[in-house]
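SAMPLE LOG
Freezer: B-3
Tube label: C17
Construct: single chain, 82 aa
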Amino acid sequence: MFKYKGLPKSIDSTEAEHLYYGRNFRNDLVSQTGDDFKELAEAFKSNNFTECIRLGKVLYAKDPTNLDVILILLRAYDQKKI
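STRUCTURE (predicted):
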């Protein structure tokens, strides 16, 4: 996890595969039906990208393999041109 968060470009395909599929065994995943994720999606829909990035970072810290959170964060950063 340290390597994924700190040096993501240094992870090879085998490590990335195990990291992603390892999420199936975690109990603290971010749910798309949860209030936190709904708040993130609403901030994105309303074009409040600063708030979206703030909320997305919190959810990303909880579940760094959630592809929905990563996609929203990437799109928010792209809209802000950061």
